[in-house]
Design brief:
Amino acid/polyamine transporter I; globular; mainly alpha; 430 residues
């Protein structure tokens, strides 16, 4: 269970906080801590559903299996599972962006051109190769890296509370009540890592007891960390500085009271943390790809564990697509699209859970609460995307969803025709 908790925290606070705190702060202003709590509550509600489903269906595929159980093996479960895979790709792109942003800032390199993007792509390539060490390597690395990163984050966050300028926390720095809901949607990708915990359920001795604890502990710890860090950033850094330094606002805030030492320390921590998040997310998406293919919901070349010496296609394709996202989407677009994807995915998981809630023993009002909360925040996020980024970025969400279901439909149609042809051949040539 400690490895499961560390993977969950690593997928959330291990990397996202360094990217989303600045973006969220520019949206909500001094109300960022409230937005962090609101987004965390949505994640907690979703984790209840995941805990019940994971206890009933312990598997290394996590949400992949939950969707299949809720909707059956068909276009709906297959489409949402491919959509989930695209969400993981956006998460990887976010962590790659954050890593390169902090490294470029730390080294004083001009971020113009493709240098920053190339660094993020290189990070993904390195960890794609490291994944062939298997889940044991992932778990061991996570325990060490996550522990150090959390200690440093909490340490600097708590120290930063003593240097806060109270005026910066005042309501006059709120950007309006709607901004809290907008920011809650924007930063939600910071909590999506809790889903990675369910990927370890198949290896747990008693998932019915251990999985809920691992999920609630992971999300609860991350909410506390996010709120502490949010207060420190908002209280130590002017809103204008947060907006102009969105990608590395945390380092800038720590530099305000700890000088160059604080800025460097947080930047180095960010490098380890975002690398750790890539490590955990590649592990989770790789397992998802394997199980999706097992249920014939992705091409057959995904149908093997990616750390097998003879099965590299799924992992490499995942990494390549994440690199393309880094090259063609900025960090803000990746954050918004990733949050939207996971909010919609968790809503789909909850809707499917309602169909089988008697089997899992879940309380329907909690599952309904999670479903509604995800959809409400999703709608507010879409409104903000339209207002801040325009129609094109909003259309990308619909395109992702349409491509997922179209790919699944075409795949099933092709496989159906192949099965008919094989039967005819067997009949003609007994």
């Amino acid at each position: 269970m400690p490895a499961a908790v560390s993977i969950g925290i690593g997928g959330m606070a291990g990397g996202s906080i360094f990217a989303v705190v600045g973006i969220g702060g520019s949206v909500a202003g001094s109300a960022l801590p409230i937005a962090m709590v609101l987004s965390g509550v949505v994640a907690l509600l979703a984790s209840y559903s995941y805990a019940k489903l994971g206890a009933k269906y312990p598997t290394t595929g996590g949400a992949v299996e939950f969707l299949v159980q809720g909707y059956g093996k068909g276009v709906i479960s297959g489409g949402f599972n491919i959509f989930q895979w695209l969400g993981y790709i956006l998460s990887l792109a976010l962590y790659g962006h954050a890593f390169s942003t902090y490294l470029v800032s730390l080294l004083g390199i001009d971020p113009s051109g493709y240098i920053e993007k190339a660094i993020g792509c290189l990070l993904l390539a390195v960890f794609a190769l490291l994944q062939f060490g298997g889940s044991a390597v992932v778990g061991t690395a996570q325990k060490i890296i996550v522990g150090l990163c959390v200690l440093i984050l909490v340490g600097f966050g708590i120290v930063g509370l003593f240097f806060i300028e109270p005026a910066r926390l005042g309501s006059e720095n709120w950007l309006g009540p709607m901004s809290i809901l907008f920011a809650a949607g924007v930063v939600f990708i910071g909590y999506e890592g809790f889903g990675l915990v369910t990927n370890t359920a198949g290896a747990m001795k008693n998932p019915a007891r251990q999985l809920p604890i691992a999920l609630y502990v992971s999300v609860g710890v991350v909410i506390v960390i996010y709120v502490i860090v949010a207060f420190s950033v908002i209280g130590n850094l002017a809103l204008s500085a947060i907006t102009s330094n969105q990608g590395f606002a945390l380092a800038e805030a720590m530099g305000e009271f700890a000088g160059r030492f604080g800025r460097v320390a947080i930047s180095v921590t960010a490098l380890f943390a975002t690398a750790s998040a890539v490590n955990a997310t590649v592990f989770g998406s790789a397992n998802a790809s394997y199980q999706i293919a097992r249920d014939q919901e992705l091409p057959e070349n995904f149908d093997r564990k990616v750390w097998s010496p003879n099965a590299r296609e799924g992992l490499f394709i995942t990494a390549i697509l994440a690199m393309l996202a880094i090259m063609f989407l900025d960090i803000t677009a990746v954050t918004m699209l990733g949050s939207a994807a996971f909010l919609l995915l968790y809503a789909a998981v909850n809707a499917g859970h309602l169909r089988i809630r008697r089997e899992t023993g879940a309380r329907s009002y909690l599952v309904w609460s999670s479903l509604i909360a995800c959809l409400v925040i999703f709608v507010f996020l879409d409104v903000y995307i339209y207002q801040s980024r325009g129609l094109l970025t909003l259309i990308l969400i619909a395109v992702m969803l349409a491509v997922s279901f179209l790919a699944e439909g075409l795949l099933r149609f092709t496989k159906g025709r192949e099965r008919v042809r094989d039967k005819r051949r067997a009949t003609t040539h007994p």
